[in-house]
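Incident log, support desk, overnight shift.

02:14 A customer reports that sequence design results differ from what the structure should imply. Their input is reproduced verbatim below. On-call engineer (initials T.W.) acknowledged and began investigating.
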């Protein structure tokens, strides 16, 4: 059975409902190989990354699932994304996500641009109506674009998939989990990728190879 990797979830350290341990347990039951806890941060609370690490270390030592401390830079001024990304990495974040210009929230214009131009960013989440130029820069900087399972954010999936395929940018499918019911199986992730218009030959790469390569590049797996 294929194992799932989800690199975008939220715990009680921001606006999620679950403790890191419960995210790990529920993900394990759904046959996840790895899950990243990427709570919302800006300059006011970026220190939460350090608090997540203690829980992550306990889980890694005792359970057969890789839990990854991370951060999602959210609704921050676009001009400070690089500064925040560096701060998050220095505090121990192993995955840095940026909350992209989803079509259902008033994310400041320029967020996608600044995110794809920042080498410390790993994933641009739900980037909405991302441009070809931004996707090309994401490819150059090895930043993955996200196909989202989350309600509302998923409305841009078809556009994101189309643009990424046109320029050869890397894609991942993440849940942006906030509540227990948000975590999904590999089979559901496959359906979401297919519904976004990805050809069958690309889906395994998006669900398995791309997230694995992100984690391998960091020495996590």
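02:41 Re-run completed on a clean worker. Output:
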């Amino acid at each position: 059975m294929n194992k799932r990797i989800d690199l975008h979830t939220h715990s009680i350290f921001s606006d999620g409902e679950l403790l890191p341990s419960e995210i790990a347990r529920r993900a394990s039951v759904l046959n996840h190989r790895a899950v990243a806890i990427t709570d919302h941060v800006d300059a006011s609370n970026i220190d939460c990354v350090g608090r997540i690490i203690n829980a992550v270390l306990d889980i890694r030592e005792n359970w057969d699932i890789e839990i990854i401390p991370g951060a999602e830079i959210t609704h921050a001024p676009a001009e400070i994304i690089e500064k925040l990304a560096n701060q998050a990495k220095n505090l121990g974040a192993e995955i840095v996500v940026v909350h992209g210009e989803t079509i259902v929230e008033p994310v400041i214009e320029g967020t996608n641009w600044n995110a794809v131009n920042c080498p410390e960013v790993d994933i641009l989440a739900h980037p909405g109506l991302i441009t070809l130029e931004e996707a090309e820069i994401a490819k150059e900087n090895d930043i993955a674009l996200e196909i989202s399972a989350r309600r509302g954010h998923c409305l841009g999936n078809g556009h994101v998939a189309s643009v990424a395929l046109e320029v050869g940018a890397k894609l991942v499918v993440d849940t942006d989990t906030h509540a227990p019911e948000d975590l999904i199986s590999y089979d559901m992730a496959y359906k979401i990728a297919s519904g976004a218009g990805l050809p069958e030959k690309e889906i395994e790469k998006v669900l398995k190879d791309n997230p694995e390569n992100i984690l391998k590049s960091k020495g996590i797996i």
